[in-house]
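Team,

Forwarding the record for the chain on the shared tracking sheet. I've put the sequence and predicted structure together so nobody has to dig through attachments.
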Amino acid sequence: MKDWSGNTPRPGFTLIELLAVIAVIAILASLIITVGGNTLKHSRASEAAVQVRQILLAGQLYANEHGGHLPKVASDNVGLDEPRDYFYVTRNGVAETEGTALAAYMGGAEAAAAGLRAPNDAGLAEVGQPGRNFSYTFNFLINQGELQEGASEPSGFEKALSTINLYYVDDPAEKVIVYEEENPNDAFCVWFIDRPSSRFDGKGHVGFVDGHVELLPADEIYGSAELGEIVPPDKQY
C-alpha cells in the first residue's frame, strides 16, 4: 500500500462515502432517541409504581394502628369531618392532604401531595383547562364497613363510619385498593366510575391489598367486581 506523502494532497471522502457516514450517523441517532425514549418511559413507569407502593404502605401502617381498618375514601366533599381518618379528601375536585392519613404516613402533606401525582400526568381536563391534582383513585368499596343507621346493607357512597377490615380479606393478592385513574386527570376518586389510566401503552398501575403492584390493561380493571369487592358481604367489618 502506498504511503501518503505530505507533499501530495490527501484524497478526501467521496460523495458516496459521505452519504454512507451520514446514513450511519442518522441510524445511530435514531437508536439513541428510541433507547432514550424507552428509558424515560420505563423510568416514569417505575416511579409511578413506587408511588402506588408508598400509598399502599401508608394504608397498611394506618391499618396496623386501627384494628385492621384502612383509611376511609372521600369522594368530593364527602367525609370532611376527620381528615386524619381518610387517605385524602377532595373538595370540588381538588385533593387536599393536610392532616390526612397519607400525610401522617408519607412524611407530611407536601410529600403526600407529590406522591399523588404521577410523573407523566399532565393534569389537564379534556377541554385543556387545569384538571384535578391527583392521579390515583381508590377502591370506594373500602368504605363498605360499619352500617349507617337505618341502612339495610353496606354502601360505599355514604360518609363511612368504619371501613372494611383487612383481617377478613380472603384473597389479598387479588383485591385492589388503589389504581391509576384516566388521563386527563378529571376523576372523582371512585373505582367503579373513574376509568383506569392507560398512560403506559394502554396499561395502568394497580395496587393490591397485599402490597404488590401490577401494570394491567385498563379494560381488565374498569368495573371488575372480582378486583373491587374486597371482603365477603357477611364480613364487612
